[in-house]
Amino acid sequence: MSNVTLKPHYSTVVVGGGQAGLSASYYLGKAGVDHIVFEKKTAAHKWKSERWDAFCLVTPNWQCLLPDHPYDGADPHGFMVRDEIVGYLDRFIDKVKAPVLENTEVTLIERDGSGFRIETSAGVVGADAVILATSLYANPFIPRAAEKLPESILQLHTASYRNPEILPEGEVMVIGSGQSGCQIAEDLHLAGRRVHLVTGNAPRCARLYRGRDVVDWLTDIGQYDITIEHDGMNKKKHDTNHYLTGRDGGRDIDLRKFAQEGMELYGRMETVSGGKMIFRPNLAKNLDEADRVYNSINALIDRHIADRAIDAPPPSVYEPVWVPERETTELDLEAAGVTSVIWATGFTPDWSFVSLPIFDGTGYPVQRRGVTGIPGTYVLGLPWLWTWGSGRFLGMAKDAEYIVDDIVSFIGLNRETRKRVAAG
User: Fold this and answer.
1) For the segment 106-129, what is each residue's pLDDT rounded down to a tens digit?
2) Which H or E run includes 30?
């Protein structure tokens, strides 16, 4: 891939060689659009270098529907583990044969007449259109409170965690109860490590309900096709994903059960002071809200089954198996025997190279179905770009195809405009 020869101008430049950028390249190639994909590292590298050993999908394999590349294994209702996911992506890379220039950083995108000027570590090129496919997960985020932790404590972000064996002996503090935080906490818990887990506002979801995987039910209901323009869904793009797991065939993650088994749970972290971690007294609230979402999703499935008279096992409502007797609001980490902290605090996007007025006050690109207000500028691969399926293997093809269709029309119009201007 990296032996692609750089040209002075392309019809379209794609920034990012992950599944989003590769999907865009697939449709650009199919439409005959001259293009190049710039990748700062290597194609799909995050799946290879920023996932822990026991990582697996949380949605069934059949939802892997990259362009012309559906799941090609023998277990459509299973959950691929990291190396299987990498294999699936490598086969997609081989199939697409995208013109990817790897180890090439884009440092500036700016307007240049009716097109764009793109500065990269390999040189400067021009383009009629650009697709920003770098996702929201460019840089691991660790709060400044980490600087106040004792130097004796090892600190890792989830992007660097691999397995329990890389951590020193002692207890482990995991900060964050989203999908990664909960799954890593479980990974450590199953390995016999004593775990402290700081919770947040992440909701949870059942794995199986009334005889089927909840994802199957939600697909039938049409949840993954709900657009961001549906009642109040626009705010969903900033929501934390529901926590559950595909590990060992798939199961719920119930933090209350972990607590019964000895895991220590806390409310949201406020700060670190004097070697102590300070927490909000909102653990009970966090657990209750996660369970409320869990039960509301199941109730949605109940209504679907009742409305269609589907023969299924009886409904149920989750009842807490454990409740906190008290809220711990501070913990001396060294005194508690905590020797490592894992920051499951997410990532931040990097749009610093984009010198185009496409962002809102929060730094999020303003777009509709990937099309921004600056003609010829597109974004791809974001959660809730258009539907709940956007940003996932499930919805990537539809989003990429829509954007490329728009680019084909735009490039045609843009060329005609330039011809008219040149003709006077």
Assistant:
1) 999 999 998 999 999 999 999 999
2) helix 19-30
CA distances from 33 to 125, 297, 369, 372, 406 (A): 16, 43, 20, 20, 12
The H or E element spanning position 132 is: strand 123-132
d(CA 219, CA 227): 14
Nearest alpha carbon to residue 267 among 255, 254, 281: 281
Q: Specify the 3-state DSSP secondary structure of 81.
A: strand
Question: pLDDT class for 297, splitting at 50, 70, 90?
Answer: very high
Strand ranges (DSSP E) for 285-337?
330-332
First to last CA, the chain: 42
The domains of the chain are located at: 9-138+349-423, 149-343
Sign of the Cα pseudo-torsion (229, 233, 235, 240, in order): negative
9-138+349-423 classified as CATH 3.30.40.10: no
Q: Which residues pair with 277 in a beta bridge?
A: 272, 331
| Pairing between β-strand 195-198 and β-strand 264-266 as defined by DSSP bridges | parallel
DSSP code per residue over 182-227: HHHHHHHHHTT--EEEE--S--B--SEETTEEHHHHHHHHTGGG-B
Find the mean pLDDT for residues 32-48. 96
Question: Computed from CA positions of residues 394, 371, 50, 294, in that sequence, does the dihedral angle turn out positive or negative?
Answer: negative
359-397: pLDDT as tens digits: 999 889 999 999 999 999 999 999 999 999 999 999 999
* Cα–Cα distances in angstroms (integers) from residue 279 to residues 141, 157, 289, 384, in the given order: 19, 19, 18, 31
On the question of pLDDT at 421 being above 60, the answer is no
Crossing angle (nearest 10°) for helices 214-221 and 283-307: 60
